[in-house]
């Protein structure tokens, strides 16, 4: 009855707006037609900007067929985005509106300040706590899966060697060896994908608890004797002594691999340097380094973020925003994350976020403190 009432009473219909992303190279969209019905069932109406899904290969007609309207998304009660809004876009928001998206609260505090000044309640997808109950909302993980997969394809494209072992009339070609540094979600997906392509895989991380996950994928575990488990599923910062020990050990290990994929990245921090110039110089000519931490400076000393360069006959690839290169599935996964978060806020056709909920309290980055 509550949902029916919410749909029949225009005063109780929550509107969710989906703007067209404007950042250069961005092809994802915040919501896809597959989730429209789910939101409609919770008493929400979705308004999509014309052409919002074009670069994700989703025409407007698919949205309208799913029950969405084409119109101005910035006047909606909730605006769902992929990237942080520009200053001009923040100017289109009003007091009391809800904004959901990747907002970079740790690295782009100016945007958060402007949103707070505008009276917007902003929920940062990267601030959702990594607890079991919030797995369906974990957009960092969903997009990291895409990045890990694409990183291996980039490595295979630039490699001068086959990934799988090949037996031919001319003889046998040994499989490539691939080392993944940092085995969070992206790293585990990279290991799994490289294994599927036939490479001999090895994983390394300073968090010893992930060793079993690495082995479960058929990969070897590189143990350097350094442990730095931290909070929230991330590694703590290494001491200077640990960092020096790690670099020396990695320099020796890296030279034995054809492909090195680095994924070590903690939100709000500069990426740790794991691959030194000396390590690159020691790799066999034709080897490849794919650095997924370019947005935070890179894990490789010779990385040029966003560029592909050759140093010491080793190709170093540092793609930015890899999920945008697979816009269809990346958008679908992200839309499910956003929808799951929205469902926590919707009750009987009304928008009523309960800030006693850990997920909402932690992810809301512009909420006024009680009593202020």
Automatic annotation (TrEMBL):
Domain Alanine dehydrogenase/pyridine nucleotide transhydrogenase NAD(H)-binding: 156-318
Top-level taxon: Bacteria
Chain intervals for the UniProt region annotation (Disordered): 1-22
Ranges of residues in domain Alanine dehydrogenase/pyridine nucleotide transhydrogenase N-terminal: 17-147
Entry keyword set: NAD, NADP, Nucleotide-binding, Oxidoreductase, Translocase
One Pfam entry name: AlaDh_PNT_N
InterPro entries: AlaDH/PNT_N, AlaDH/PNT_NAD(H)-bd, NAD(P)-bd_dom_sf
Bias kind Basic and acidic residues: ranges: 1-11
Assigned EC number: 7.1.1.1
Reactions mediated catalytically: NAD(+) + NADPH + H(+)(in) = NADH + NADP(+) + H(+)(out)
SUPFAM superfamilies according to UniProt: Formate/glycerate dehydrogenase catalytic domain-like (SSF52283), NAD(P)-binding Rossmann-fold domains (SSF51735)
GO molecular function: oxidoreductase activity
Presence of keyword Lyase: no
Keyword Phosphoprotein recorded: no
Function: The transhydrogenation between NADH and NADP is coupled to respiration and ATP hydrolysis and functions as a proton pump across the membrane.
Protein name: proton-translocating NAD(P)(+) transhydrogenase
């Amino acid at each position: 009855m509550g949902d029916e009432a919410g749909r029949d009473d225009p005063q109780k219909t929550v509107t969710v707006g989906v703007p067209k992303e404007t950042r250069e190279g961005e092809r994802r969209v915040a919501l896809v037609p597959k989730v429209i019905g789910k939101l409609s069932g919770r008493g929400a109406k979705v308004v999509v900007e014309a052409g919002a899904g074009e670069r994700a290969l989703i025409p407007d007609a698919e949205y309208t067929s799913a029950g969405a309207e084409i119109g101005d998304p910035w006047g909606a009660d909730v605006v769902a985005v992929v990237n942080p809004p520009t200053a001009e876009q923040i100017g289109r928001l009003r007091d009391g509106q809800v904004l959901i998206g990747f907002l970079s609260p740790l690295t782009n505090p100016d945007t958060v300040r402007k949103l707070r000044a505008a009276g917007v309640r902003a929920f940062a997808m990267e601030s959702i706590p990594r607890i079991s109950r919030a797995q369906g909302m974990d957009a960092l993980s969903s997009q990291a899966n895409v990045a890990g997969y694409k990183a291996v394809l980039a490595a295979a494209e630039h490699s001068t060697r086959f990934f799988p072992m090949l037996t031919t009339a001319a003889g046998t070609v040994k499989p490539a060896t691939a080392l993944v540094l940092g085995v969070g979600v992206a790293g585990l997906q990279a290991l799994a994908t490289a294994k599927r392509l036939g490479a001999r895989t090895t994983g390394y991380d300073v968090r010893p608890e992930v060793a079993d996950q690495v082995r479960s994928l058929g990969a070897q575990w590189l143990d350097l004797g350094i442990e730095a488990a931290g909070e929230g599923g991330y590694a703590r910062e290494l001491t200077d002594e640990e960092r020096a020990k790690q670099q020396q050990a990695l320099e020796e290990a890296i030279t034995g691999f054809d492909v090195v994929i680095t994924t070590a990245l903690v939100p709000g921090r500069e990426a740790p340097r794991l691959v030194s110039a000396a390590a690159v110089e020691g790799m066999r000519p034709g080897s490849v380094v794919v650095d997924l931490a370019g947005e935070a400076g890179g894990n490789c000393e010779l990385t040029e973020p966003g560029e592909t360069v050759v140093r010491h006959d080793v190709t170093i690839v540092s793609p930015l925003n890899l999920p945008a290169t697979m816009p269809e599935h990346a958008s679908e996964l992200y839309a499910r994350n956003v929808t799951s978060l929205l469902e926590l806020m919707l009750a009987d056709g009304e928008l009523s976020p309960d800030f006693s909920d850990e997920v909402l309290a932690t992810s809301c980055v512009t909420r006024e403190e009680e009593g202020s």
